Amino acid sequence: MKKYKFAILKNEDPFSHREWEKSCIKYGCDYEIIDLTSNNWFEQITENNFDCLLLKPPGRVAYFKDMYDEKVYLLTNTLKMFTYPSLVEVSLHENKKKTAYWLDASGLPHIPTKVFFNIKNAYNYVKTAEYPIVAKTAVGGSGLGVKFLYDENSASRYIKKAFGKGIRRKTGPDFRQGNIAGRMKKWLKYPSEAIYRIQGYMTDLREYQKGFVIFQTYIKHDFEWRVVRIGESYFAHKKTKVGEMCSGSKGIEYVDPPLSLLEFAKQVCDFGKFNSMAIDILEGENGEYLINELQTIFGHVQDYILEVNGKPGRYLHRGGEWIFQEGSFNSNLSFDLRLENVIEILKKEQRLKEIKQIL
User: Fold this and answer.
1) Domain endpoint, select from 217, 236, 268
2) Which residue of 76, 151, 212, 294 is surrounded by the most CB atoms within 10 Å?
3) Which residues, 6+ apart, have CB-to-CB distance to 89 below 8 Å?
4) Three-state SS at 194
5) Which positions ≥6 away from 266 have C-beta within 8 Å?
């Protein structure tokens, strides 16, 4: 059996490689860690023969996000290298502008989202819009860049600020995530990580979004579905509302998801050819499913994402039917399952090559 060799492409976060590294060690794979912010990243990648480039796209600072996406585009589109996740998945990750464009182009049911680069167009929109409006920054997860605008005056002030000094999203520790004592204990155990997090908060304070606004239609809701696909595995749970938002609330309700929800998620992922994707979905007034956001890399509070009748597990689509399989499938923040998917993809490609040689 072939021993695979991978490149882990870390981002500006010095700890961003850890989950992929743990998975490579677990499955006995050779690997190298390459910092995409380094000046010799290109030589490190092209002078080796890697079976796959394992990606960890950033989503905190816009210029680092742009840098990572630009380099992945070169590696996949020009050099035809195999990456996981894919270029499309990475480019949509924490890029709400591009996600809005992609959803419009896809024709998939989603929450209407407008991106305005023309200030006059933005002002004209808020004159006739239904309120509240959900304003979002292009980069930033956990709802930190979300602001609810309840009338034309507040929306106009938001536009003026966005096209002036810029919009700065919230920063600092997100205490909605709970387990504060556990997080403090971790920071005391790993002081270098604590220092990096504090430096990150300081960077956030200098990060402004200027020259455009993103406005999303508000859909009345009490919860949001989080549906995850990794390879052939599907998971789902409800994200419950804390205050105005489900995003970032870390409020979770484990229920057996409707099979129609899993079918919808499968259609989305099949259309986008997604192997690693979390889809946040709201239910409209008529019960229709509407895509809210897409994230290819995501965290989860528990060691599992799906629980049915008190049993963690996953759903598989077999022979046109959905089958629940009990078990633990989300170890190491689901990176173990991602690497299993990478290895399975490589094995399939090898089998296809062998068949072609025989024919």
Assistant:
1) 217
2) 294
3) 272, 274, 275, 276, 277, 296
4) helix
5) 229, 234, 317
CB contact at 8 A, 139 and 57 = no
Find the CATH number of the domain harbouring 298. Answer: 3.30.470.20
How many Cβ atoms are within 10 Å of 346's Cβ, its own excluded? 17
Q: Nearest to residue 226, comparing CAs of 235, 217, 218?
A: 235
8's tokens? 């882990």
- How far apart are alpha carbons 208 and 147 in whole angstroms? 15
Residues 192 and 153 in one domain: yes
pTM given for the model: 0.90
Strands 223-230 and 52-55: unpaired
pLDDT, tens digit, for every residue of 298-335?
Answer: 988 889 999 999 999 999 999 999 999 999 999 999 99
Contacts of 59 (CB under 8 A, 6+ apart): 65, 93, 94, 139, 140, 141, 295, 297
Question: Is there a contact between 277 and 296 (Cβ–Cβ < 8 Å)?
Answer: yes
- For 311, the token pair is 């049993």
Q: Determine the structural domain holding residue 26 and report its residue range.
A: 5-92
Q: Are strands 307-308 and 113-116 parallel, antiparallel or unpaired?
A: unpaired
User: Could you say which of 47, 77, 92 is where a domain stops?
Assistant: 92
Question: Does 185 share its domain with 230?
Answer: no
**Rounded-to-10 torsion of CA 85, 22, 26, 183:** -110
Q: Quick: pLDDT tens for 102-125.
A: 999 999 999 999 999 999 999 999
Alpha-carbon gap, residue 325 to 302, rounded angstroms: 18
Structural domains counted in the chain: 3
State the Cα–Cα distance between residues 256 and 235, nearest whole angstrom: 10
Using alpha carbons, list the distances in angstroms from residue 55 to 84, 100, 186, 193: 6, 23, 25, 20
